Amino acid sequence: MEYRFSGKSGLQLPLVSLGLWHNFGSEDPADVARAMLLHAWDKGVTHFDIANNYGPAPGTAEITFGKVLREDLASHRDEMIISSKAGYWMWDGPYGNGGSRKYLISSCDQSLKRTGLEYFDIFYSHRYDPDTPIEETMQALVDIVRAGKALYVGISNYPADKQKEAYDYLRAAHVPCVISQYKANIICPETLEENLPVARANGSGFICFSPLAQGLLTDRYLNGIPAGSRASKNVFLRPEQVTDEAVARAQRLGAIAAERGQTLAQMAVSWLLAQDVTSVIVGASSVKQLDDNLQAINNITFTDEEMKLIRGEVKGERGEVRG
């Protein structure tokens, strides 16, 4: 595994990080989750990306991770980067959602208890909250670090103007934002165009999630919507998004990937890494799927012709499905 420095900090992240958004909660087989976590570690994945409401059920991904860490990986804690976040809904009432100081600090405390950790390596504001002054949200992150509950802070899903405001506040408080997390993939490159330059200009690293566009950048939907898939369950990918055009595009991109000796999913991850981002977060439902995605790091160089062909396949399609 290769590692990249996160912005202008001394923090290094692996090219591929493991996200625990789904498939690591109480509704999933614990032995499969454990096997994926241990396999990721064996392959050099040192960064594990969680959030307070990951599961399902909300909070249980942190419990699962904490159990595996305690029983299998405790001696490696100082070699790991473990992140969590707060910003989206976690519990009912006015203090279980958003960007308030009350929510962020309470949520961080709860997440530490669920994981059994003394501190997070990175704690994020998971989203910009227009109903809370950005100064309040950023000061909460600063105080979380000063209380020893996190080593670094990050932001996720902030619009470019608020992204810059967040950087400015944190820099002035001497707790700079070391990482910024955004959705990005071949068919959803807007954040690479809008938010990546802002991060670079301000010394923040940049990490991408949803590299496979919820499965559209795989071969899973090339022959219809399979049973058990996200589209079949109408979870994060609606059946009407799996259009004939989306399938045809995946087939054409898949042909480019095959010429490179990759699957479409592998090329999708490699393409993001070729944009010089810090890391790409992948999810997985099995060790095999995780291992297939990790193979992407073996070929992250693209020729000008390959980049031109890929751009040609997605040009003019921004009104279609986004990942």
Structure, described:
The chain has helices spanning 30-42, 60-73, 101-115, 134-146, 160-172, 190-194, 196-201, 230-233, 244-259, 264-273, 287-294, 304-314, and strands at 3-5, 12-14, 16-19, 47-49, 81-86, 120-125, 150-156, 177-183, 205-209, 279-282. The chain is an alpha/beta fold. It has a single domain (3-219, 275-297), classed as NADP-dependent oxidoreductase domain (TIM Barrel), CATH 3.20.20.100. The strands form two sheets. It has an eight-stranded parallel beta barrel, surrounded by five helices. Strand 5, helix 3 and strand 6 form a beta-alpha-beta unit.
Please write out the topology.
Blueprint: E1 3-5, E2 12-14, E3 16-19, H1 30-42, E4 47-49, H2 60-73, E5 81-86, H3 101-115, E6 120-125, H4 134-146, E7 150-156, H5 160-172, E8 177-183, H6 190-194, H7 196-201, E9 205-209, H8 230-233, H9 244-259, H10 264-273, E10 279-282, H11 287-294, H12 304-314
Helix pairs in contact: 1-2, 3-4, 4-5, 9-10, 9-12
Essential attributes:
single chain; alpha/beta; 10 strands; 323 residues
Strand order of the largest sheet: 3-4-5-6-7-8-9-10
Rg over C-alpha atoms, rounded to the nearest angstrom? 19 Å
Task: Report the average pLDDT across residues.
Answer: 91
Give a short account of the largest sheet: 8 strands, parallel, barrel
Poorly predicted regions are 224-234, 316-323
CATH class: Alpha Beta
* Counted beta strands: 10
* Percent of residues in helices: 25-40%
Write down the overall geometry.
Answer: globular
